Amino acid sequence: MPTSGLLFATSKIKNPELSDDIYNKWYNDIHLPDVLATGCAPIALRYKNKNKDAKMPYLALYPLDDLALLESEKFKNIPLTSDVLPGGGEAFENIEFAIRTYLPIQKFEGQIEKSGRGNCIICVAMEPAEGTDEEFDEWYRKQHLDMLSMVRGYRRTTRYKLAPGNDSSLPRYLALHEYDDSDVPGDQLKLVVGTEWSKKIIGEAKAFDRDVYELVKEAGKTGAKL
After folding, report:
1. Which of 121, 132, 179, 213 is most exposed, with minimal Cβ within 10 Å?
2. Is 122 left (phi over 0), alpha (psi -120 to 50) or beta?
3. Domains, the chain, ranges and CATH?
4. Could you please report the per-residue DSSP string of 116-184?
5. d(CA 73, CA 98)
6. Which of the four pLDDT bands, split at 50, 70 and 90, describes residue 223?
C-alpha cells in the first residue's frame, strides 16, 4: 500500500564560481522540470530563507503519493549534470544538499478554507520533551492551530513526522504554516505562543527550530496544496 510523504530538501551554493542567478536558473528551469517529469511528485515548491545568515538558505518541497518512489529507477536517474553549471556541470560539485523525508500527520485549514497558495511558509521543527508526544499532538489539535488560524494572513498548516531512515538526531516533528506573505503580525504571534500551554510545550521542548521562507518558484500542478 502506498505511503504518502514529503521530500524536504535544503540547499546552498558551495562552488564560489556558481552565481546565485545561475544556481536558481538551473534549479527552477532545469532541475524542477526533471523531477516533475518522473511523475513522483505532482508539485514542486522552492523557497528562500528570510534569514540572510541561514546555513542552508534554499528549501524545496515535494509532496509524494508514495515515498517508495524515491527508490525507483526513474527518480534515481534524474539528471544531475548540466552545461549551465560551472566546472563540468556536476550538481553535487556545485551545490550542497540536505534531504529529509516525512510522513504526514495532519492537515489544518482553519475555520475558513482558502484556495491558492500563500507566498510564505513558517517552518517549525520540534522535538518535544521525553514522554510528551501525546500531549504535544493534543496541544496542536486543541489549541495551537486554532489560535494560529486567527493570525492575519494565515492560510493553512501541514504537520509531519520524520520518516524512518533519517538522521535520528533531527527533531522528529515538522509543521509548515502557510501565510499570505512574510509580514506576519508579531504581536498576534506573541499571543499565540503566550498561553500557559504553549509556554510549557515550547519551553520544555528538546529542540525548537523556526525558519521563515518566501516562495521563489512553484511548478507542476500550481495551486495544489501540500
Report:
1. 132
2. beta
3. 5-101 (3.30.70.100), 104-215 (3.30.70.100)
4. S--SEEEEEEEEPPTT-HHHHHHHIIIIIHHHHTTSTTEEEEEEEEEPTTS-TTS-SEEEEEEESSS--
5. 21
6. confident
pLDDT tens-digit series, residues 4-20 = 999 999 999 999 999 99
- Alpha-carbon distance 203 to 197, whole Å? 10
CA separation for the pair 190, 195 (Å, rounded)? 9
pLDDT tens digits, residue range 40-96?
A: 999 999 999 999 999 999 999 999 999 999 999 999 999 999 999 998 899 999 999
